[in-house]
Specification:
With 657 residues, the protein is an alpha/beta fold. Helix content is 46%, strand content 20%. Helix 7 runs antiparallel to helix 8, helix 10 (343-359) packs across helix 11 and helix 18 packs across helix 19 (569-585). The radius of gyration is 47 Å and the shape is elongated.
């Protein structure tokens, strides 16, 4: 920053009248002085000429003395004005300057005005180092010695100084040796208050190492502690990690709000902190994920006992925000004896074990084995390949006919997901759907399914001239999105299909959300004339009370019920009861898994209206399904030809022939 010079103020020239008045208003005084000097000179025997010369000399000296006195007064006034101006300006600057002599004694304090960090009263004459906090005096002394060793160069220092009130403040300082400067002759220390900045830095550091909600160590802190513990890992001193996840916390967040969910997380953290032994480290990784580091301690509880203590700590319900909540946890356990293993790999293994605990029923503790690691890698690779397949259009749709049992003619087709992986071969649809739901790809996959299934049925309706329908399996995650309805409308409009050409198949999992977005979406679809079919009835909750409250147009019996009818008397009784119930409700029934003529005849006799299974036809590529369907339309059209033009690809289902 350029140094600003503070020049003396210029005096304005007086007016001519003022100058004249200034001369003549002193005329009587000058005349009196002149007469006095002449009288004294004549009495002293001087000649008139000598007396006149003396009078002139005295007059000139007097005038010169008056002029010098006037100039001095003007200069003193200007300096005082500049000093006042400089102090006023420095009072608005955050910096404060302290000047010390060779002995480190304060000789002057300048700057900072009312906001001064250092009190100016009584400060002059004290030792500079006495102002510095005891813990920072060594570094301050080093900075002063550094400045003395390189004159004229600034030496930085940051530390704490004592301020009025017995408090301390963080300052950033620059020390410069100005002893050779005659205007300074001392060591100049410029202070700037950085207390606010240091507080912000400390808060950022705290947030980086500790979770703000629970006060527990953060992921970064746990990973650092784990790395340190792994340096001493051995068969006799194993290091264990527990990866914990609260079960169904999303239900609490969605129903009671995220604030209540946060209170529950904090309460669980308190429970576990109280329950865990002192040699463990409990940390929160974020969300509902916690990780516990369990190093080996002689005669201390092992990792399995620690995990059991965590599960037991949640046996009693927790009261938060006026709600009494019961929460459980799934825990994955990984133990390491190899000091060369990376901390990230240990956490990955524990996370793989946690995945098994959650998919195996939740509220469990599962210990890692190598098969879990292979499965985790397999899921990751499958996810990557699925993303690539979606981008490349490698997802195919096969169509399986749904037959009207009274006429033995196809009334609709179910779109079934097929994916032929270049290395794995045909991937099971249920595995694809599972990975898609875990990774959030289910919405993109479902949209592709809807698009290409409608494209396929539009093509089939045009070629056959019959109003066949297509049934598309839909995930509850799709139905929960508000934009799903507009997506359906756009696809139907794109392929010029009526709403009646589409049937949305849902599983019984949707029954768990009787008042949520999924139900509202089903109501809107039903109102538009789109069919709603409940798939795989009999494998899930099978709550009969929901059948009358959801907008259902069709019920699909799972193959376990239809197959049981031909195997046992009990199975037959169950099937009769279900068919009687659906008849009373006015719901058409599709019997899945019909493989023999005996099953087809039996289900027809019992009152099933539609059937699906290998007994009629397996799932087929679109072009093959059209050729197959033309046999049923030939009686009316007389056309036995085929058309293989660009069959579309896509579909979603877990039904694998």
């Amino acid at each position: 920053m350029p140094t600003r010079s503070f020049a003396l103020p210029r005096r304005s020239a007086p007016a001519p009248f003022g100058r004249a008045w200034g001369r003549w208003r002193l005329a009587p005084i000058w005349a009196a002085c002149f007469a006095t000097v002449v009288a004294v000179a004549l009495r002293g025997g001087l000649t008139p000429l000598t007396a006149a010369a003396l009078v002139v000399s005295v007059g000139l000296l007097t005038w010169r003395a008056a002029r010098v006195a006037h100039q001095h007064a003007t200069l003193v006034g200007a300096v005082d004005s500049d000093r006042r101006r400089l102090r006023t300006l420095l009072g608005d600057v955050a910096d404060q300057v302290v000047i010390c002599d060779d002995h480190g004694l304060v000789t002057e304090v300048v700057g900072a005005g009312n906001g001064a960090m250092l009190s100016t009263s009584g400060l002059v004459g004290t030792r500079m180092l006495d102002l510095v906090h005891e813990s920072d005096r060594a570094s301050a002394l080093a900075a002063m010695e550094g400045a003395l060793s390189q004159r004229g160069r600034s030496t930085p220092w940051e530390g704490r100084v004592r301020v009025p009130g017995g408090l301390t403040a963080w300052v950033n300082a620059a020390v410069v040796d100005r002893r050779d400067d005659p205007d300074v002759r001392g060591l100049v220390v410029t202070f700037r208050d950085v207390t606010v900045r240091r507080a912000a830095e400390q808060e950022l550091e705290r947030l980086a190492h500790f979770d703000p909600l629970t006060g527990l160590p953060s992921r970064a802190t746990l990973v650092a502690d784990l790395r340190a513990a792994l340096l001493h890992a051995s068969p006799t001193h194993p290091v264990s990690v527990l990866y914990c996840d609260l079960d169904r916390l999303k239900v609490v967040n969605d129903s009671l709000g995220h604030h209540t969910g946060d209170l529950l997380i904090a309460a669980v953290a308190k429970r576990w902190t109280d329950a865990l032994p002192g040699h463990t480290t409990l940390s929160r990784f974020g969300g509902d994920e916690f990780v516990v580091l369990v190093p080996h301690v002689e005669d201390g509880p092992g990792p399995a006992a620690v995990a059991d203590a965590m599960v037991a700590a949640l046996d009693q319900s927790i009261v938060v925000a006026g709600y009494e909540l019961t929460v459980t946890a799934s825990i994955g356990l990984a133990t390491v004896i190899d000091r060369d293993k990376a901390a990230e790999d240990v956490l990955r293994d524990a996370d793989a074990a946690l995945y098994e605990a959650k998919t195996g029923g939740r509220n469990r503790v599962v210990e890692f084995d190598t098969d879990m690691g292979d499965a985790a890698v397999e899921r990751l690779l499958l996810e990557s390949d699925l993303r690539s397949a979606l981008r490349s259009g490698l997802i195919e749709v096969h169509l399986q006919p749904i037959m009207d049992l009274a006429t033995r003619r196809p009334s609709s087709f179910e779109a079934l997901l097929r994916w032929e992986h270049p290395v794995r071969g045909w991937v099971r649809p249920d595995k694809i759907v599972h990975v898609a739901e875990e990774t959030g790809l289910i919405v993109e996959l479902g949209n592709v399914v809807l698009e290409l299934s409608c494209q396929a049925i539009a093509w089939m309706r045009d070629l056959l001239g019959t109003p066949v329908k297509v049934a598309v399996n839909t995930s509850p995650l799709q139905l929960a999105r508000a934009e799903f309805m507009s997506t359906v409308d756009e696809v139907l409009r794109r392929y010029d299909l009526p709403a009646s050409a589409l049937v949305i198949e849902v599983t019984e999992g949707i029954l768990l959300d009787p008042a949520g977005q999924g139900r509202a979406t089903l109501q809107a679809l039903h109102h538009r004339g789109i069919g709603i079919s409940l798939d795989d009835f009999g494998t899930g909750y099978s709550s009969l009370s929901y059948l009358g409250t959801f907008p259902l147009d069709q019920l699909k019996l799972d193959r376990t019920i239809t197959n049981g009818a031909t195997e046992t008397a009990t199975g037959l009784a169950v099937l009769r009861g279900v068919l009687h119930m659906t008849e009373q409700l006015g719901l058409p029934v599709v019997a899945e898994g019909l493989e023999t003529e005996e099953q087809i005849a039996q289900l027809t006799a019992l009152g099933a209206t539609h059937g699906q299974g290998w007994g009629f036809a397996a799932a087929m590529p679109v072009s093959e399904a059209i050729r197959w369907a033309r046999r049923w339309a030939s009686d009316e059209t007389g056309d036995q030809g085929s058309d293989d033009r660009g069959a579309p690809r896509a579909g979603i289902s877990d039904d694998q022939p």
